[in-house]
Specification:
It is built from nine helices and 21 strands. With 381 residues, it is α+β, with helices and mostly antiparallel strands. It has two domains: 174 residues, FAD/NAD(P)-binding domain (3-Layer(bba) Sandwich), CATH 3.50.50.60; 146 residues, D-Amino Acid Oxidase, subunit A, domain 2 (D-Amino Acid Oxidase, Chain A, domain 2, 2-Layer Sandwich). Strands 5, 6, 7, 14, 15, 16, 17, 18 and 19 form a nine-stranded mixed sheet that branches. The protein has a six-stranded mixed sheet with strand order 9-2-1-13-21-20, sandwiched between helices. A three-stranded antiparallel sheet has the order 3-8-4, covered by helices on one side. The protein is globular, with a radius of gyration of 21 Å.
Length: 381
């Protein structure tokens, strides 16, 4: 690793969520990196508000391939990365009523086609795993069960990335607002609230703010769409052990819930368009979560223990955008992971690092099992 002058780095990465931290971790193996975040802490927005679960059901081929290629890292992270398991098996059930059978069957066939372990189960079989569901055919008639779905320890994964970046001699800064971005003499020059910085490559991992960063750098925006998701926690039924309950949602995407630390986390699975912001829950989102969960179960949610919201940011085709911008020298996109950023982080970071270093990116994409052209920013130009 070459020794830079003060304020100079091989790569400067904007955005301290899972995207920025994961690609910084991979690049720090051989390069001097600076990861900057304007908030008081890393993972303040989407990453820190995620109740992430590793699931393959309902995802497209590219997301499934990236997830599957990440699973080895999540199961067996590098030595010293973390002292705790990052995955814990929970299972996942997607339900359908009697009028949604065709959609459920299509989802099942797609999963089987991708090689996902899944099986069709009846409402009665679902009720053996989650005794409080409603088994009327017009509510829940059948489901698809993915037994290999896993809880992800988001904080353990994220802190492992940050620890690894620092251990390799690279740098991380919070509370760092960008005041100006300019390109000259083959470098990006950044004036921040704390420092004057420069780097030949600027990596845009700013999530919901990715288009704003692009505009500040003179690059053409992708057209990202931040969407708000509402989350609540509530008590499990008294004297009921919920620890073995799987995650459960429905094929129409109107709710899901999952046990966590003795209580239940629930959501209306909303995707409400939002400007980039510090997302907050609204009463309609909370009420919708309660109503939809109660309509599909015999659970009675009399009290909300906590509520929050986060932004999931999608490119127009809902796939990540990774790679150099053809129209802006040294500007690298690494954003648009949507709701899949945690479970795809290890593989997507390896692919991103290969593209940023311009080393064997085709081979990495082939090993991951994706069509590289589907994630490059060129597809929008």
């Amino acid at each position: 690793m070459s020794k830079p002058t003060a304020g100079e780095y091989d790569f400067i990465i904007i955005g301290g969520g899972i995207a920025g931290a994961s690609i910084a971790f991979e690049l720090s193996l051989s390069k001097n990196i600076l990861l900057i975040e304007r908030e008081d802490a890393f993972a303040y927005h989407t990453t820190g508000r995620s109740a992430a679960t590793y699931i393959e059901l309902l995802h497209n081929r590219t997301i499934v391939a990236l997830s599957r290629a990440s699973k080895g890292f999540l199961n067996n992270p590098p030595s010293g990365f973390t002292d705790i398991p990052l995955l814990k098996r929970c299972g996942c059930i997607i339900t359908a009523n009697i009028t949604e059978q065709h959609s459920l069957e299509s989802a099942f066939q797609q999963a089987i086609g991708y090689g996902t372990e899944a099986k069709m189960i009846s409402a009665q079989e679902i009720s053996k795993r989650i005794p409080f569901i409603r088994t009327e055919p017009e509510v829940i008639f059948a489901g698809v069960y993915e037994p290999q779905a896993q809880h992800i320890d988001v904080d353990g994964l994220f802190q492992g990335y940050i620890k690894g970046i620092r251990a390799r001699g690279s740098h991380t800064h919070t509370r760092t607002s960008i005041l100006e971005i300019k390109r000259s003499d083959g470098y990006w020059h950044l004036q921040t609230s704390k420092h004057s910085l420069r780097s030949p490559v600027l990596i845009n991992a700013a999530g919901a703010w990715a288009d704003s960063v692009a505009e500040a750098a003179g690059a053409t925006p992708i057209g990202y769409e931040p969407k708000k998701r509402t989350m609540i926690t509530f008590d499990a039924p008294a004297n009921v052990d919920i620890s073995a309950w799987p995650m459960m949602g429905n094929i129409s995407g109107s709710f899901y819930f999952i046990p966590e630390a003795g209580q239940l986390i629930g959501s209306p699975a909303d995707e409400t368009p939002s400007p980039p912001c510090d997302a907050q829950p609204d009463e309609l989102g909370v009420a919708t979560a309660v109503y939809n969960i109660e309509q599909h179960t015999h659970l009675q949610i009399s009290k909300i223990n906590s509520k929050w919201a986060g932004l999931r940011t999608f490119a127009p085709d809902r796939l990540p955008v990774v790679g150099f911008d053809a129209g802006t020298e040294g500007f690298f996109w690494f954003a648009g992971q949507g709701g899949f950023g945690i479970q795809t982080a290890p593989a997507l970071a390896k692919l991103g690092a290969a593209l940023a270093l311009e080393r064997k990116e085709t081979e990495v994409a082939k090993a991951v099992g994706i069509d590289l052209t589907l994630v490059l920013p060129d597809r929008f130009r």
